[in-house]
């Protein structure tokens, strides 16, 4: 039983989901997730291999890196089921279960072809979470999302084929970046990990998904890419700088974005940057940091999306301009949201602190001063847009006049469980560190570190207070902030349209010219046939024409 | 002004005051706890205080500038 790839059972079970009655369906999904997780106990090694056309495909490979991702993906999938319990439509539950299953199966792929199959499967299943919104806007976003995701898959497949020729093996393990094949794979991972300028799809599509859909999306796709980088490109120096840029840029956008789910999508991007930096360093300490951060991040990010989702479920919007003063109407949601906010801001005693500390230690240990300073500034930035902005504009700020009911009980339970994880990881780091890939002998709680971290976050908060009090903080405005998806939503059509018009004109013009030449030739022939050469003695104009024609044909033949 | 707005204002004042007190406490604690960082620069007295505050201001200022360049109407893509 444990030989079966984790996640596979979930994909199979998702086929039955649409046909089951509402509550029974949720229980069925939870059972499927539990049974799937049994395979995680298989232990290290290759557990399932099949032979396709002479090629060995490793469907189930497990080691110290797959285990933490396997565990957290199962936890996230189960949390999503509870969070979405109230939803009667089967579409999100079906897609969500298959999507989580595909991501888990991808983590256990031992070769690049198997990885490719599950890589694409996550794209195809997850797009329904966006389509389920049912609006015109969401449909368009879903198609853009699908295009980008499938492009990533195609790059992966092309890269895998080239890599197969170069290295003679399809085994998915560490790859030295250098050849075309490895670069293509790197780019495929980079798209899914939302690298700078390749990140547009993330902020474009996640906020367009349904309330449950966004929570589901936030857990898997990008973290699968993080896992893929950790396995394939650990220690690749480019990643340090790419990651540093990823932590910095989204922060500025998040400060001025009005849609709070989009703000969270930016902060998700920024958090991925921390993991990418750690993977770029590639030491055992750094990889531990990346995995720890991915683990903690999945939960607190889901918690934040859940809390904003709950508000959206009750009042129908996630725009900061339309929210405010909800602390009295939705007090529990507010508490959970603040727990998520404090976790992502890395307050001591919360999960972000114990996870991020490992990455910062690894960066400091390598003596990467500039990177360290960027990450530190980005940490202050996270505090601003996720730690303060999200809860502040939703639950405090000013009276929006909204008086909704507290979130449904199932949503509260899911948020409560996520909160327990956030605090649990925060207060029991040694237990948490045990699931990491390598042994970690580190204690984040010493007086020096706690004081230093508090100084950073409290004074970042004071800066916010200062800016708010004196009216310098940019007010929330209902607007669109341009992001890198502008490149393919506006710039490319803008260049593409004139280009198409011009090339169209050229083709039409050439067509016209050729037609007129052909018409002339035909006319000439007609003339010749109507005026046959009378005899050898009197060469008329027809003979001259015929000769000219023959000569030009000969000349053309000669040229080509 | 609605009741809720008055409460919010009051809460904001208390929260700001509370933050200022913690801030002062954290600066004072620097004299009693030997704080050391992961990089040399971080060992500088009250470095996180200065860096956390100024980085936040910097981010917001860049955000304001960025808004001028990148902000469009809500229906820009429609």
Could you describe the 3D structure shown?
The complex is a heterodimer of chains A (about 550) and B (about 80). Chain A has about 550 residues and is mostly helical. Chain A folds into three domains: about 1-145 and about 165-175 and about 190-220, no CATH class; about 235-485, no CATH class; about 490-560. Chain A has 20 helices and three strands. Chain A has helices spanning about 10-15, 20-40, 65-85, 90-105, 110-130, 135-165, 180-190, 200-205, 210-230, 240-255, 260-280, 285-315, 330-345, 350-365, 370-395, 410-425, 430-435, 445-470, 485-530, 540-560; strands at about 45-50, 55-60, 480. In chain A, strands 1-2 form a two-stranded antiparallel ribbon. In chain A, a hairpin with a 2-residue loop joins strand 1 and strand 2. In chain A, helix 1 packs antiparallel against helix 2 (about 20-40), helix 11 (about 260-280) runs parallel beside helix 14 and helix 13 runs antiparallel to helix 15. Chain A is globular and about 110 Å long. In chain A, about 55% of the residues are buried. The model of chain A has no long low-confidence stretch (mean pLDDT about 95). By secondary structure, chain B is mainly α. Chain B folds into two domains: about 1-35; about 35-80. Chain B has helices at about 5-30, 45-70, and one strand at about 70. Chain B is flat, with a radius of gyration of 19 Å. The interface between A and B is large, with 57 and 54 residues.
Query: What do the pLDDT scores of chain B average to?
Result: 90
Give the H and E element order of chain A: HHEEHHHHHHHHHHHHHHHHEHH
Largest sheet of chain A: 2 strands, antiparallel
Summing up helix and strand content along with how strands pair, one would put the structural category of chain A as mainly alpha
**How many domains make up the coordinates of chain A?**
3
Count of helical segments of chain B? Answer: 2
Oligomer: heterodimer
Q: How many structural domains does the protein architecture of chain B include?
A: 2
What is the overall silhouette of chain B? flat
In whole angstroms, how far apart are the ends of chain B? 37 Å
Distance between the termini of chain A: 70 Å
> Could you estimate the helical fraction of the residues of chain B in percent?
55-70%
